[in-house]
Amino acid sequence: MSTAKKKFDGPSPEEKIVAGLIELMEAGIAPWRKPWAEDGCSGHHVNLLSGHQYRGSNVILLTIGMHVRGSAMPYWCGFAEAKKLGITPKKGSKCAYIVRPQLNRYVEEGAALADGSKADPTTKEWMAFKPTAVFNANDLEGEKLEELIKLRKFQAGYQVKPEPERLENAEAALKS
Description:
Elements: H1 13-26, E1 46-47, H2 57-69, E2 75-77, H3 79-83, E3 88-89, E4 96-108, E5 122-136, E6 140-141, H4 145-155, H5 163-175
Parallel strand pairs: 1-2
Antiparallel strand pairs: 2-5, 3-6, 4-5
């Protein structure tokens, strides 16, 4: 049984992230700027299925991914979890990468001592970050997709206000 890792000639997830950022910067897009829109889609990046908000460097990675795709929806999910609900990526859609923390543990047997007994085993632990592919809601299709997007917008507190109310609020803000 071979323990050698598969060789992959393509770019790593990290190289894809950097290439996407460079592409945006060359196009004059600053993905670190907040898009001020009241469309219910410019908030936190959220897992479409669980409602969990992404944190840390994943927010930056997903913002870059969103701009590369020209999307305005901050809703994401992995292939396997979406497939369980009958949601699949559209043909030709590309994933973005997030990083998931992974705790690794290695137990080393105790060394043999002079009296014939063994020393206590030592445990080594370290944290690694595993690149994980996720798809934007705009790149997905399926029966339950619209329902999930509406649910996430509702949970974010987004409500479509009638135009007269929006204009009234804008006038009040300008007067103050």
